[in-house]
Protein backbone atom coordinates (compact mmCIF):
# COMPACT_ATOMS: atom_id res chain seq x y z
CA UNK A 1 0.00 0.00 0.00
CA UNK A 2 1.24 3.48 -0.88
CA UNK A 3 1.73 5.62 2.23
CA UNK A 4 1.73 9.39 1.92
CA UNK A 5 3.22 11.29 4.85
CA UNK A 6 1.58 14.67 4.93
CA UNK A 7 0.55 17.64 7.03
CA UNK A 8 -2.42 20.00 6.57
CA UNK A 9 -1.88 23.36 4.89
CA UNK A 10 1.53 22.40 3.57
CA UNK A 11 3.34 21.52 0.37
CA UNK A 12 1.74 18.08 0.72
CA UNK A 13 -1.14 19.37 -1.40
CA UNK A 14 0.41 18.39 -4.76
CA UNK A 15 1.03 14.81 -3.65
CA UNK A 16 -2.48 14.48 -2.21
CA UNK A 17 -3.99 15.85 -5.41
CA UNK A 18 -1.87 13.51 -7.54
CA UNK A 19 -2.92 10.47 -5.54
CA UNK A 20 -6.56 11.53 -5.68
CA UNK A 21 -6.25 11.90 -9.49
CA UNK A 22 -4.52 8.53 -9.77
CA UNK A 23 -7.39 6.51 -8.33
CA UNK A 24 -4.80 4.31 -6.59
CA UNK A 25 -5.49 3.13 -3.05
CA UNK A 26 -3.24 4.92 -0.58
CA UNK A 27 -2.96 5.62 3.11
CA UNK A 28 -2.43 9.13 4.45
CA UNK A 29 -0.09 9.23 7.44
CA UNK A 30 -0.49 12.50 9.33
CA UNK A 31 2.91 13.96 10.14
CA UNK A 32 2.47 16.76 12.66
CA UNK A 33 5.08 19.34 11.64
CA UNK A 34 4.04 21.58 14.56
CA UNK A 35 5.51 19.01 16.97
CA UNK A 36 8.59 18.22 14.88
CA UNK A 37 7.38 14.76 13.82
CA UNK A 38 9.11 15.27 10.47
CA UNK A 39 12.48 15.34 12.28
CA UNK A 40 12.06 11.86 13.81
CA UNK A 41 14.66 9.34 12.59
CA UNK A 42 11.93 7.11 11.12
CA UNK A 43 10.67 9.98 8.99
CA UNK A 44 14.15 11.20 8.02
CA UNK A 45 14.72 7.73 6.55
CA UNK A 46 11.90 8.57 4.10
CA UNK A 47 12.72 12.24 3.49
CA UNK A 48 16.14 13.26 4.83
CA UNK A 49 15.22 16.93 4.41
CA UNK A 50 12.65 16.53 7.18
CA UNK A 51 9.87 18.10 5.12
CA UNK A 52 6.48 16.92 4.00
CA UNK A 53 5.40 15.29 1.81
CA UNK A 54 7.12 11.94 1.95
CA UNK A 55 6.05 8.72 0.30
CA UNK A 56 6.64 5.00 0.82
CA UNK A 57 5.63 2.46 -1.76
CA UNK A 58 6.89 -0.96 -0.74
CA UNK A 59 10.66 -0.62 -0.50
CA UNK A 60 10.70 2.72 -2.35
CA UNK A 61 10.81 5.90 -0.27
CA UNK A 62 11.13 9.50 -1.40
CA UNK A 63 10.38 13.11 -0.63
CA UNK A 64 9.76 16.25 -2.73
CA UNK A 65 6.31 16.82 -4.18
CA UNK A 66 7.38 16.93 -7.86
CA UNK A 67 9.45 13.77 -7.43
CA UNK A 68 6.45 12.03 -5.86
CA UNK A 69 4.34 13.13 -8.84
CA UNK A 70 6.97 11.81 -11.28
CA UNK A 71 7.37 8.54 -9.38
CA UNK A 72 3.66 7.70 -9.16
CA UNK A 73 2.95 8.69 -12.79
CA UNK A 74 5.82 6.47 -14.02
CA UNK A 75 5.45 3.59 -11.56
CA UNK A 76 1.74 3.31 -12.30
CA UNK A 77 1.34 4.07 -16.04
CA UNK A 78 -2.27 2.86 -15.92
CA UNK A 79 -3.12 6.18 -14.23
CA UNK A 80 -2.47 7.96 -17.54
CA UNK A 81 -0.72 10.82 -15.72
CA UNK A 82 2.44 10.81 -17.85
CA UNK A 83 3.26 10.39 -21.54
CA UNK A 84 5.15 7.17 -22.30
CA UNK A 85 8.95 7.40 -22.38
CA UNK A 86 8.82 6.84 -26.16
CA UNK A 87 6.29 9.67 -26.70
CA UNK A 88 7.89 12.91 -28.03
CA UNK A 89 5.54 14.82 -25.69
CA UNK A 90 7.53 13.31 -22.79
CA UNK A 91 10.22 16.00 -23.16
CA UNK A 92 7.79 18.89 -22.59
CA UNK A 93 6.06 16.91 -19.86
CA UNK A 94 9.32 16.65 -17.90
CA UNK A 95 10.08 20.32 -18.45
CA UNK A 96 6.71 21.41 -17.08
CA UNK A 97 6.65 18.80 -14.32
CA UNK A 98 9.70 20.43 -12.75
CA UNK A 99 8.90 24.03 -13.75
CA UNK A 100 6.96 24.62 -10.53
CA UNK A 101 9.71 23.76 -8.02
CA UNK A 102 12.52 25.17 -10.17
CA UNK A 103 10.86 28.35 -11.48
CA UNK A 104 7.43 29.11 -9.97
CA UNK A 105 8.40 28.59 -6.32
CA UNK A 106 11.61 30.69 -6.51
CA UNK A 107 9.73 33.38 -8.46
CA UNK A 108 7.08 33.52 -5.72
CA UNK A 109 9.80 33.84 -3.09
CA UNK A 110 11.40 36.60 -5.16
CA UNK A 111 8.08 38.48 -5.29
CA UNK A 112 7.33 37.93 -1.60
CA UNK A 113 10.77 38.98 -0.34
CA UNK A 114 11.26 41.67 -3.01
CA UNK A 115 14.62 40.02 -3.59
CA UNK A 116 16.63 41.56 -6.40
CA UNK A 117 18.53 38.87 -8.29
CA UNK A 118 20.09 39.55 -11.68
CA UNK A 119 18.16 37.38 -14.19
CA UNK A 120 21.46 36.20 -15.64
CA UNK A 121 22.40 34.53 -12.34
CA UNK A 122 18.98 33.37 -11.10
CA UNK A 123 18.18 29.80 -12.09
CA UNK A 124 14.56 30.83 -12.74
CA UNK A 125 15.52 33.94 -14.76
CA UNK A 126 13.13 36.40 -13.14
CA UNK A 127 9.62 36.35 -11.73
CA UNK A 128 8.39 38.31 -14.75
CA UNK A 129 10.00 35.91 -17.20
CA UNK A 130 8.69 32.87 -15.31
CA UNK A 131 5.09 34.02 -15.41
CA UNK A 132 5.33 35.36 -18.99
CA UNK A 133 6.56 31.94 -20.17
CA UNK A 134 3.80 30.18 -18.23
CA UNK A 135 1.20 32.61 -19.58
CA UNK A 136 2.22 31.89 -23.18
CA UNK A 137 2.15 28.12 -22.60
CA UNK A 138 -1.26 28.17 -20.94
CA UNK A 139 -2.85 30.19 -23.74
CA UNK A 140 -2.64 27.04 -25.89
CA UNK A 141 -4.60 24.97 -23.30
CA UNK A 142 -6.69 23.50 -22.04
CA UNK A 143 -3.81 21.79 -20.17
CA UNK A 144 -0.08 22.46 -20.07
CA UNK A 145 0.51 19.72 -22.69
CA UNK A 146 -2.54 20.63 -24.75
CA UNK A 147 -5.49 18.24 -24.70
CA UNK A 148 -4.06 15.77 -22.16
CA UNK A 149 -4.13 16.39 -18.40
CA UNK A 150 -0.96 15.07 -16.73
CA UNK A 151 1.04 15.13 -13.51
CA UNK A 152 2.68 18.28 -14.91
CA UNK A 153 -0.68 20.03 -14.49
CA UNK A 154 -0.63 19.02 -10.85
CA UNK A 155 2.72 20.69 -10.17
CA UNK A 156 1.94 23.73 -12.34
CA UNK A 157 -1.64 23.97 -11.11
CA UNK A 158 -0.60 23.73 -7.46
CA UNK A 159 2.01 26.45 -7.82
CA UNK A 160 -0.31 28.76 -9.72
CA UNK A 161 -3.20 28.07 -7.35
CA UNK A 162 -1.11 29.15 -4.36
CA UNK A 163 0.35 32.18 -6.14
CA UNK A 164 -2.94 33.51 -7.57
CA UNK A 165 -5.90 32.08 -5.62
CA UNK A 166 -4.59 31.37 -2.13
CA UNK A 167 -1.93 33.97 -1.40
CA UNK A 168 -2.89 36.51 -4.09
CA UNK A 169 0.80 37.29 -4.57
CA UNK A 170 0.59 37.31 -8.32
CA UNK A 171 -1.73 39.42 -10.45
CA UNK A 172 -3.98 37.18 -12.44
CA UNK A 173 -4.00 36.97 -16.22
CA UNK A 174 -6.76 35.66 -18.49
CA UNK A 175 -4.83 32.44 -19.22
CA UNK A 176 -4.23 31.87 -15.50
CA UNK A 177 -7.89 32.47 -14.64
CA UNK A 178 -9.13 30.06 -17.33
CA UNK A 179 -6.59 27.39 -16.36
CA UNK A 180 -7.37 27.69 -12.65
CA UNK A 181 -11.08 27.48 -13.40
CA UNK A 182 -10.49 24.13 -15.13
CA UNK A 183 -8.17 22.97 -12.32
CA UNK A 184 -10.59 23.87 -9.52
CA UNK A 185 -13.45 22.11 -11.33
CA UNK A 186 -11.63 18.75 -11.14
CA UNK A 187 -13.20 16.47 -8.52
CA UNK A 188 -9.77 15.19 -7.41
CA UNK A 189 -8.59 18.78 -6.83
CA UNK A 190 -11.70 19.47 -4.75
CA UNK A 191 -11.13 16.33 -2.65
CA UNK A 192 -7.46 17.26 -2.18
CA UNK A 193 -8.37 20.77 -1.03
CA UNK A 194 -10.69 19.35 1.63
CA UNK A 195 -8.08 16.85 2.80
CA UNK A 196 -5.22 19.40 2.81
CA UNK A 197 -7.27 21.90 4.81
CA UNK A 198 -7.15 19.45 7.71
TrEMBL record:
Residue ranges of domain GST C-terminal in the record: 86-198
Keywords: Transferase
Family: Belongs to the GST superfamily.
InterPro entries: Glutathione-S-Trfase_C-like, Glutathione-S-Trfase_C_sf, Glutathione_S-Trfase, Glutathione_S-Trfase_N, Thioredoxin-like_sf
Every GST N-terminal domain range: 1-80
Database matches in Pfam families: GST_C_2, GST_N
Protein name in UniProt: Glutathione S-transferase family protein
SUPFAM superfamilies membership: GST C-terminal domain-like, Thioredoxin-like
Molecular function terms from GO: transferase activity
Gene3D superfamilies hit by this protein: 1.20.1050.10, Glutaredoxin
CDD domains associated with the record: GST_C_8, GST_N_GTT1_like
